[in-house]
Amino acid sequence: MLLTKPLSKAESIALWWLVANLPVAGDVISLASLAEALKVPRARLSQTIKRLCEIGFLVRGTKIALSYHYKLNPVFIRILS
């Protein structure tokens, strides 16, 4: 998938912010919290997160309150290490 369509600038920014700010231990973040941290509209970030999940960089976790939470895929972290 990455060979046919590389990450967009927004996808790269979101991914590397998560790598820098989420502990490898598996902490999760909501879409709203990530949008606030990156200072982008939640609706715009939704497609970015969806694609990062499809590629395998992120894993969608459980639904807490009204929204799903996301975490870095442990396999991706092992590849980075």
| Uncertain residue ranges | none
Distance N to C terminus: 22 Å
The CATH class name reads Mainly Alpha
User: How many independent structural domains?
Assistant: 1
| Overall average pLDDT | 88
Characterize the main sheet. 3 strands, antiparallel
Strand content: 15-25%
Features:
81 residues, Arc Repressor Mutant, subunit A, 19% strand
Description:
By secondary structure, the protein is of the alpha+beta class. The chain has a single domain, classed as Winged helix-like DNA-binding domain superfamily/Winged helix DNA-binding domain (Arc Repressor Mutant, subunit A, Orthogonal Bundle). 52% of the residues lie in helices and 19% in strands. The chain is built from 4 helices and 3 strands, in the order αβααββα. A 3-stranded antiparallel beta sheet has the order 1-3-2. Strand 2 and strand 3 form a beta hairpin. Helix 1 crosses helix 3 and helix 2 packs across helix 3. The chain is globular and about 35 Å long.
